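Work package 3, deliverable 3.1, input record:
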Amino acid sequence: GQNQKKTYIIYMDKSNIPADFDDHTLWYDSSLKSVSKGANMLYTYNNVIHGYSTQLTADEAKSLEQQPGILSVHEEVRYELH
Amino acid sequence: TTRSPTFLGLEGRESKSFFLQAETRSEVIIGVLDTGVWPESKSFDDTGLGPVPMSWKGECQIGKNFKASSCNRKLIGARFFSQGYEAAFGAIDETTESKSPRDDDGHGTHTATTAAGSVVTGASLFGYAAGTARGMASHARVAAYKVCWAGGCFSSDILAGMDQAVIDGVNVLSLSLGGTISDYYRDIVAIGGFSAASQGIFVSCSAGNGGPGSGSLSNAAPWITTVGAGTMDREFPAYISLGNGKKFSGVSLYSGKALPSSVMPLVYAGNASQASNGNLCTSGSLIPEKVDGKIVVCDRGMNARAQKGLVVKDAGGIGMILANTDSYGDELVADAHLIPTAAVGQTAGDLIKRYIASDSNPTTTIAFGGTKLGVQPSPVVAAFSSRGPNPITPEILKPDLIAPGVNILAGWTGKVGPTGLPEDTRNVGFNIISGTSMSCPHVSGLAALLKAAHPEWSPAAIRSALMTTGYSTYKNGKMIEDVATGMSSTPFDHGAGHVNPAAALNPGLVYDLTVDDYINFLCALDYSPSMIKVIAKRDISCENNKEYRVADLNYPSFAIPLETAWGEHANSSAPTVTRYTRTLTNVGNPATYKASVSSEMQEVKIQVEPQTLTFSRKKEKKTYTVTFTASSKPSGTTSFARLEWSDGQHVVASPIAFSWT
């Protein structure tokens, strides 16, 4: 249901990091904690994208998407070997 | 792999010597995102390799059954990414899966060794496909990124693997995996691939095994090289001789106690079961009294092919004929079955079943023919190989090219037997498997060879060289066939054709692309600034007053989707005129190239302007336009053509695909 957590990939607009953050991971974490206090980042991505992955409920994901500095929130997808 | 280096012309004296020289002085690193690696494979022997490249920032991650010493100067990096998998499935059960870079599956070892395995003499699977095995770039270094687990490959893990591989300093990324069709800004392989390509990394991906249905491709982004699969000139025949004297051939990698040479009773599984799908030989579905001591015909589908043999064995059967149904046609898949088995195509399967139905005492023999080389025609497009048109951007032709992907022998894990079944306790150093997963690392390795020979070439230039020198006809001039139809294949099946590495070394001209070209492409797709930023990581403002056209992406092939006229316009004779612009960069000596076009449909007019391009120095660029004038055709009509630029020495070829929708 609504409370079931799923993994999401969060794409951050790193160029718009607020001035009061020196470290982008602290900014990511603060943004995440604003919608889900207990959530932790699974990975932070620093090269091919700017962002992180985490587990959220659907409501939390929707709420996070509205936060400043968030470009996009995509639910995890399973890929297959060919 | 055995055979494919010869089939691709890598073992010719001249090309072998050139590639070896180029490779030994270079330090190309191939990152393989897959199920991990079996470091004890002989294909990771580092004898003769120099120190690990100075630029390398990767590491050998320690974990279950994996030590720092598992890496060497060949396998220079190994990492694993399981956070997404564990978040979805719970903690990894370390009694069944290694929480480490170790490959418990075999797929990752197979792909890594195909791309860059060292030379191993005396390789074979139970004597099948025997020979000297080597990866395409046998002197390149390998880094394994384990992102796939028993429960699948999760996008958060794949993205983490790509992120780290780029940071570590790979030159080529090889991904034999894919997801469902989705827009580029939602597909992490496309997103990660964009950044990798922007940093000079060649990204090679499998096209998928969704063939022969059209539009079945994955990994279709234009910054990715999308690889379909073809056969080689090698088969593993099995011979079936029925009691009525009819003979059929199939394939098999069975190795074990032979069947009696006398004829044996034959039964169709569908007649030896009370289950509604008893014909498929699913677990426990066969009635022992009806199959005991007999050879059983099982239909392909639902459960694993080799598992059907175990079901037959458990019910007392002594052998199996595995018959394709209409889902698979006549494409044959060779497996290392645990009981004497021959796999046959649908045509033969139907005739065998008809014989069983018509004879009160059906009998058969199965004999195994080992390895047969020199099979013609070859290559043939594999039925399973995913096909175009490109489902995301029909104006970009995909797949880009095909490479060997059927019955490929390469390195394997020591954890599971060649069938992957838990009951299969056989330990093999090499296994023979099929898929676009197998063709992709062939191209990854070949790209590494080109990168070694031409370090200054961009990923797009390397792809262009591989594509424009590929061949789409046999030596007799006939088009490469498609197993699915038995007819000629088209560029929607084979892209620019079959890879030809010796020719790709010296393509004459290339269609190069920069990051800005790809960003213009995204603008042409009408992506919003935030969608573009997800992919490109920077603010891009597509200009309102500029016309962005997908058709102008400097791609080495052409796809022209055309609309069918409807209603009052149905009889309109007004033709559609489409203009494409391309720029060629000289990577050879000064020369004058002339354009020539061959087309199978005369009603489509193709005009190239100018007809001649003269290059007086290296890196010089020249632009030309192609104008396609086509009248309306019924929806579903396709037609194909080919544009070639030649200076008499080089042929720079581009496939052209028209499709009316």
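Chain B touches chain A through 52 residues (CB under 8 Å).
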